[in-house]
Write a structure and sequence with these properties.
globular, about 40% helix, six-stranded antiparallel beta sheet, alpha+beta, 7 helices, two-stranded antiparallel sheet, single chain
């Protein structure tokens, strides 16, 4: 009987221990800087900062509207995205699990089945949303980078879009209803390769310091608050 009780106790404790180890590894991964792409020190600084936006689970990158971003994301015009709206100042770009990301606009939409699918592995999508002035927002962190680093980060983002005949593949009738769009993306989403890791990789392309592994928004934001 004692062996049975110990076994049951171990089975109950094991999931909590695994979660603890995962969060501890994420914390350590966020504290340790990883290597980044080198940037020519003479390269001019980007006029407007890039912003890192995040909630408890998910992080995005807000890129400023300028001549380069308008050129690189010109394909958005073909589907009616307000790319030339004078009030548009930023594109908020994110990567995530297809089923979870496209159906959870708020925390109340999260279900066990959706969360489980994301944890064990799911196809991925890119999300593009319009944004205005972000300078007064308290939920963003400004990231300063060079024009060269910015260009490399945009190349990384565009490479993540799944394409057919060089055109990103739009997911029709998939939106949260505020002018945002979803596209098919490359890569598999899972617990070890979530959205926050993608954000970290994009920043590294720009020459911005990031942790060696940042699967949680806490580890991602902690590194930027400490090092950037």
């Amino acid at each position: 009987m004692r062996k049975i009780i110990k076994t049951i106790g171990a089975l109950i404790v094991a999931p909590f221990f695994i979660v603890f180890l995962y969060l501890l590894a994420a914390l350590i991964g966020g504290l340790i800087p990883s290597s980044v792409k080198s940037v020519n020190e003479t390269s001019r600084q980007l006029e407007k900062p890039v912003y890192l936006t995040a909630n408890a689970l998910h992080a995005d990158i807000a890129i400023p509207i300028n001549s380069l971003s308008l050129q690189q994301f010109s394909f958005l015009r073909e589907v009616g995205f307000p790319l030339d709206n004078p009030e548009l100042e930023y594109l908020v770009i994110g990567w995530g699990a297809r089923e979870f990301y496209t159906s959870t606009s708020q925390y109340s939409d999260i279900g066990i089945a959706k969360a489980w699918r994301a944890l064990v592995g799911d196809a991925s999508v890119m999300h593009v949303a319009p944004a205005g002035d972000l300078t007064k927002s308290e939920s963003v962190i400004p990231i300063h980078m060079s024009e060269k680093g910015f260009a490399r980060m945009l190349d990384f983002m565009l490479e993540t879009f799944q394409k057919t005949q060089s055109q990103p593949i739009l997911l029709p009738d998939t939106t949260f209803g505020y002018g945002d769009l979803f596209y098919e993306a490359k890569g598999e989403f899972n617990i070890f390769n979530p959205c926050n890791v993608w954000v970290s990789k994009a920043m590294k392309e720009a020459g911005v310091s990031n942790g060696i592994w940042t699967p949680t928004t806490y580890s991602l934001l902690l590194h930027h608050k400490l090092y950037n």
